[in-house]
Amino acid sequence: MRAYRLRPYEQKKWEENGFSPTDLESFQWVDSCGVSREVLQEVEQHFGIRFPSKQEQAEIEASSRYHEENEQLRIILRLIEVRPMAEELVLQEQDLSIIWTPERLFTHRSSDSRVFQELVRRIKSNPEIGDTPLRLLLALFGQIVDVDADNIELISQHIHRLSTAIRQANFSEREKIILAVQTLQEYLIRLREGLFDIQRVLSLLIRSERLTDSPREAVRILLKDISSLIDHTSFSFQRLESIQNTILSLINLEQNRIIKIFTVITVAFMPPTLIASVYGMNFRFMPELEWEWGYIFAWALIIGSSVLTLWYFRWRHWL
Asked: What is the pTM of this model?
């Protein structure tokens, strides 16, 4: 359990055993990360709030993601982070519960997040960006959007590396690229869903009577940023589809080339097979059987027919 006082800035951390809800009364931001349900219930009872249940977090309706009640705002968002690991990207997701009151802001999540690390760093250097619970809420939204932009940029860089690797990739490496493309497509879908969730929440928040002109304008800017990020995800998705189509086309060309080689070999051996079949007949009258040069003549016909067939394919530019 962490709590933050913004003017002057102060940060304090408690373990579950030595924690009491009364310790939080002088702080503007209460952040619980991975605490037990019993500790959350103590905070809820002391401050008269209620964190969303797991069932509410699983709902996708906008009414479940954003709720105003008794001078409180209850918001559920999905925190999505893309992290580089070796040569791959790994996506991590978790639910974020936010409760805003005129006195303080409450946040709850299951594990640490880069969103909160960078937000705390910004507040330390400039406490004015979150000097009130409402401005702190907007700063949190802005930081989530910034991290989503970083996630999309990281995926874009990975897409560029994949598009460059196609040119020198062999058949087995292309299969790996296809699997990587499918993974990135799934990541973009998850990021896009997260952006849509924030967009719906902000669209409801901007209509709230609790916002004055200045915060409402900040929300409008965030909505514009989210729209541009959604467009960027669509562009990245199209790039991945283009890479996928290119790889499939290269694989088809490779398979067609192999089939072409086998077809040419088959056709080239058809005349020798016919000649060998003729001389394999068991008729009594076959003059070449008694001929001294018959064996050499048969080989000459076999080799000559193969060479003539290959020359014809070469002349027609089929080889």
From this structure: 0.80
